Amino acid sequence: MSIKPLRFSIVARVPIDGDRLEMANSYPAELPAMAGKGWPALIHDLRVTNLAGLDLKPALLGSAGWKLSRPVKAIATLRYLVDFAPFEKAGWSSPLESAVTDDEHVVASCRALFITTPAMEEADVQLRSPAGWLAVAPWPALNPGRHSFRAATTADLTENMAAFTSRPVDSVTASGFTLAITAMGHWAPLHSLLQETMHRIVSLEAGMMGSSGGGTYSVILVPTVDTGGEAYRQSFAYAFAEPTAENRGVWANTLAHELFHYWNGSRLQGEDYASSQWFQEGFTEYVANLTTLVGKIIGPEEFVAKLKSHIANYARLTTTLENIGTHKGPPLYSAGALVAFSFDAMIRHATGGRQTIGAFFRTLWRQTREGERKYGWPDIEGALRATAPGDWAGYYERHIRGSDKLPLAESLALAGLKLRDGTVEIDQSARPDARAVWNSMNARL
């Protein structure tokens, strides 16, 4: 409806089987307007009618959504306004989770835009914006000229960010994967470098997972002084204080990390969230490190420096990898990344470089039917065994489920590296098979 103030008008036709309307239950609660009320705090003038025009009189239930005046089994029409005034008044707090605007862009969380019902499955969406503006959606287009899209599931509908822009949108396509880049503020001058960087990342990661087409993704780069990122099903919002060509290795690693969550995190999901974060976050971080190395975004010495940083972070881990609870952070990310590096070194060493961590991920992807089935350790172990011989169960019992420290010196030695006084170095006297593993890590995922 308007950009200043930021308001949306929504009309939806949805199936209802019962008496409930819902919104996503993940919301930034640091604002008084949101705490305890959730996304419904932004909804105004909600009207719900059935096909006969009967008013179903929704009653607000706080963050849980609304209860209708009577249970129904029908197609209903919803009309309502979404007003982001609380976030605008707070200076666009939580821009990666809510909304943010400038003179040329509007970014909004789909969690805040869409009311859903338990009976919903897929959703067709048409986005309309002011004259001269384009809608950038993370969903596959049904009719690009009419800004019409299809979200395959309710989660795909709500767990994403939508953008609107009056500037041209950069598009990157590789390995059948299409990515749109919305670069706000101080990101805009990096237009060409962003395209080149994302093309390398998409090519390597989508190629590693064997993507054959149909994937869509939206990267939204926000111009705030803080640094942080938020990954969604098919989109990612990221802020970095001062992005330049010189610090590309830093921001490109985060972009590679969050893009890989498209596979490992959004689709590949553990049976138990807390005890699988060493894999979801740690292995994603290692793939990002390796992607920037193989993609020549960073050099071998920078990759070695990342391993050194992971070792320093891992030293602060006070639990086993599976017993982290809800306290994710650098120690766990780095511990998981070191496990991923160790597995990669073991795989490449055991197979003479014929197999890599990429082969393991493709196997796990197939075994879980592309993430349709959630994984547990037996699935990870099965994929490892199918990729290369090794004492995977013993490693898990000692170092992941158990409390034994990771055998870092041994793992590094397999890859032609050495650990000395907490510092990782390239071992100039490494055996030929170890040097071959190191050369393989520099060349392919």
TrEMBL record:
A Pfam family that the UniProt record links to this protein: Peptidase_M61
SUPFAM superfamilies the UniProt entry points to: Metalloproteases ('zincins'), catalytic domain (SSF55486)
Domain called Peptidase M61 catalytic: residue spans: 253-316
Protein's name in the database: Peptidase M61 catalytic domain-containing protein
Source species of the chain: Sphingomonas alba
